[in-house]
Amino acid sequence: MSDRLQQAIKKARSERERRVTGAKPRPVPTPQADVQTPRTPVQDAWDNLKPLIVDKTAVTNNRLVAHTSGELAIPFDMLRTKVLQQAKKNNWRRVALVSPHSACGKSTIAANLGYSFSRMHELRTIVMDFDLRRMGLGRVLEQSPERGMPDVLLRQAEFADVALCLDGNVAFGLNAKSGRNPSEILQSRQTGDILDEIERSYQPDIMLFDMPPLMANDDSHGFLRSVDCALLIVVAEKTPMEQIDVAERQLGELTNVMGIVLNRCRYTTGAHGYENEYY
Predict the structure, then answer these.
(1) Distances (CA, A) of 230 to 32, 128, 190, 249
(2) How far apart are alpha carbons 209 and 133 in whole angstroms?
(3) For residues 212 and 182, is the Cβ–Cβ distance under 8 A?
(4) 120 inside domain
(5) Which of 38, 69, 73, 218 has the fewest CB atoms below 10 angstroms from its CB?
(6) Is 6 a domain residue?
């Protein structure tokens, strides 16, 4: 090998070693601690609620068909979507479920809507039984609380002591027994103040109120001015048109009428080829 070639190789090797020696080592990344989203008082309030546990027998016997998604839950999922669309469009939050007479299934609808809303994990929903003379919602869910919404509205209990939470984002406020003077309780200023406090503490996106029958007494009439809108629940082939007209007119004088739900109405969809019904 010629001297010139040997010198060139030696020079190249020397230059390469110089570059390696002078190179700065790459910094070793330091491990970062897991960054957790700071908890908020609202989230803590929801997390501290007692869980709602419903027996499978109650789900079957009481027609809680929206407890899981599927074909039977479709009517309630559709109703949920329509409620949300109207609420967002009109900036409504408090929605009353009202019927002209008893046995229209509004407590069953309220419970199923609660289940349907529970699958929308980004939303928080509160469902309250404001039919203080009855334990309708509690019976549907087969719950026997020691204290109920009358105790909350009389400031004898906190909502956190009464509410039962479904899937972390739906809270049910039930009745333990028939309340005394329900009409006066629902119309009192204190009830309005307590609802405002619950809204501030839990920041629900939607509040559903299972109300007394409109034509049974005056319990609903005084409170309906405190809600944003109402759904009128009627029964197919049972509720007379005259009652529907009167109830809708009375509701319209007290609050916004979001719509009418025709319950227990069988229908067949040719597109899907199955029969279903609201309850």
Answers:
(1) 51, 14, 22, 12
(2) 14
(3) yes
(4) yes
(5) 38
(6) no
